[in-house]
Amino acid sequence: MMKMKAAVYIQYGQPEVLQVKEVEKPIPRNNEILLRVKATAVNSGDVRLRKADPFAVRFIFGLIKPKINILGSVFSGEVESVGEDVKHFKVGDFVFGHTDMSFGSYAEYKSLPENGSLALKPSNISYKEAAVIPFGGVTALHFIKKARIKPGQKVLIVGASGAVGSAAVQLAKSFGANVTGVCSTANIALVKSIGADKVIDYTQEDFTKNGETYDVIFDAVKTISVFRSLKSLNKNGIMILSAAGMPEMLQGFWVSKTSSKKVFTGIISHNAADIIFLKELIEAGKLKPVIDRTYSLKQIAEAHVYVEKGHKKGNVAIEV
Known about the structure:
- It contains nine helices and 15 strands.
- It is α/β, with parallel strands linked by helices.
- The strands form three sheets. Strands 3, 4, 5, 6, 7, 14 and 15 form a seven-stranded mixed β-sheet that branches.
- The chain is globular, with a radius of gyration of 20 Å.
């Protein structure tokens, strides 16, 4: 069997559970491509799965120990080989995308169904820039489409400097919204640079107390109080809680049932159409990847330590 290097974990826990080892190289099925992974990223989802936090993660991914031993949900790379039924990709194509629930991109190779959430890589960005787009980009796009954001609407994005927030700022702008970003002092310049019309420094000002109201409030980082923030939402406004836990989901359900305001939470879906949409925005100059730090695959545990601190600007890339 051919071997490859991968960051493997066989138990839930601290970043040190991630160990770079030699494992079996995947063999693509008839409907799959084999990707030589050039870059991936460390996202909050990878951190939660590594720790099994919340505990409910264990009911899906393994009660005592993880069933999936290689994390990594996003990728960019080059098609090395294709199954005999593959029609849309060929050897040598540069692609990027999301692994959906199969994970496995913390590795030198990954096999993927050709009808998965992938597309040709945008020609105007690097592999590592392409790899960081799908996590925040698809999450933000899912909720922005669901909220049907229209030109001229006032949109507040909390956590505007993170992976999801930085994508949400740019996507909301591309849909014609007037965007206010909420972030810390250190990230004001970044949030302005990606297109926010106004920035609120949460260390200096509480948006729930400034008298402003918005058509959409998008909390990308699970920091707002659902009920306290309602007064900042217009009568038929929409609140998006992309990082909601069970308490926030239940509060959102109650608000949606008992008022004219709507709260959107829940699991997002991925598809190739969304990846293609993001690719076209990138090529049109309307969506820029934001990378805070870059690590090598052998530094994966270090990258997890940094992401878990919760202060990253945009994304943390991994060069494989």
